[in-house]
Amino acid sequence: MSGDSRRLLAARGVRAFGDGFVSLLLPAYLLELGWTPFQVGLMATTTLLGSGLLTLAAGLLGQRLGHRRLLLAATGLMVASGLGVASFSTFWPLMLVAFVGTLNPSGVDTSVFLPAEHALLAQGAEGKARTVAFARYSLVGSLSAAAGALAAALPAFFSRQGGLEMRTSLQGMFLLYALLGIAVAILYRGLRTQAANTPDGEPSAGLGPSRRRVYLLAALFSLDALGGGFVVQSLLALWLYQRFGLSLEAAASIFFWTGVLTAFSYLVAARIADRIGLVRTMVYTHLPSSLCLMAMPFCRELAWAIGLLLLRSALSQMDVPTRSSYVMAIVTPAERGAAASVTSVPRSLAATASPALAGYLLGLSSFGWPLVVGGALKIVYDLLLLAMFRRVHPPEERSRG
After folding, report:
1. Which domains are assigned to the chain?
2. Which of 124, 219, 254, 378 maximizes the CB count within 10 A of its CB?
3. Is the pLDDT confidence value at 309 over 80?
């Protein structure tokens, strides 16, 4: 593994740790401020919208301005996001921070960092090694996010043992998020990898011959993201708080274990993909996870709901490294930054309406309608992806047919 790859993995881990506790503490903090479930969902929507626009710009400009420079700029936004949430307590300033910052309510990396990191990671590996590299990247992120979820119990601990007000303890965690942004910037400063060039030697600023494939994949990923927006981790935690009266400490423990299961599923995904192919791995693991999601609202006991959540966590994210590897494989090297952006932006943009609607539905009923709707949309996505791309093979699979 190269020095740059190690730096990218370390940066991914630090960022994911911050995302892990932010996704659980953000709804708790907003409820502490007196916000309604609808307002919490609206902030998640605003966060995803802003993240999507920034990610699109980063992907399209990454080759022209340099991935390293864009990554360092993104860490500045990360620091500002933590400081902003810790400093403000009123609606509109926090909504502004949500729009221009890097807060991640989903528990899944859909941020402005992603296009540049994916493009740089793919430059160092091809074929099976590429899928393994993305599996390792996802593994580090998921384990770190799980540790971050466990750290979400710290505010309650400090409030109980140290006598701090709960609001003060929560604000301290967002200051920690800002400090993590500084640590990530230090890691990025040491990157040396150069962007891939087009045949004439000039950096590529966008898509070329793979444009049609990328746009079709982006449309399909939009449908998946629309469904995923109904069940971002912040709102899933909110449903558990509301439906079963789950404590913040219990939620932290549960989401730690979901993160651990997700992390190790990435390594399994690479092995499965080596046998049956990237597209089939994406679909055949994603379908049962969506069924688990749709079954959760019908559970009357917390234990059953948590069991389904854990099973879903062991399956639902196997498509993450395989999807990233697949996109990088079916485009030219010079298109990778733009392709990563155009196919990942829907994870934010297409999901922008879902959290607000999910928050509204949770405000009407604790049944869990967002989980049913989100799971159904994801199943439609899986079937369409299999139908449209089962015969579009990456280079390492073409000999199989």
Report:
1. 3-397 (1.20.1250.20)
2. 378
3. yes
